[in-house]
Input
Amino acid sequence: MKKLKKQSLLVVLLCLFIPTLCNSQTTAQAVPMPTQQNKIIIDKIVDAARYKNYVIDFCLETINEAALQEKWNDQKTVEITESINYKNFRDAVYNMFAFYNEVELETLLKTYKQDTAYQTANVMIANHALGYNLEIFANDIVRGKYK
Output
């Protein structure tokens, strides 16, 4: 009988302490974002690098591939194409630059404006995390998430 009481006490204690241990895994952390001033500079970098056009072209290519594979009609293809909006992806770009300070961003902006070769092989295209986010974004557009 004593063993049963000890076991039930142990089970009760575990049930009390496990949720407190697991709480650390469920607490969401805020996504790092740049300051308002840095967002302005980042928008200028995106314009200089023509990254917005790259995002739209990538989404169009993904939509066209899905339209061919799934044999969409023209109406559905146009409807999905019209749902492309760079503003829905902009936070991923801001997050990528969140750890740069204003001086570094200004230097990067000057480099983009002066060097045309740097514009085509830019840091946004080479960033694997941003590329992965872009693939997810394009696939979400194909699935109709942004209608």
Summary: The two ends are 64 Å apart (CA to CA). The first helix runs from residue 2 to 26. Residues 51 and 57 are 10 Å apart (CA to CA). The mean pLDDT is 84.
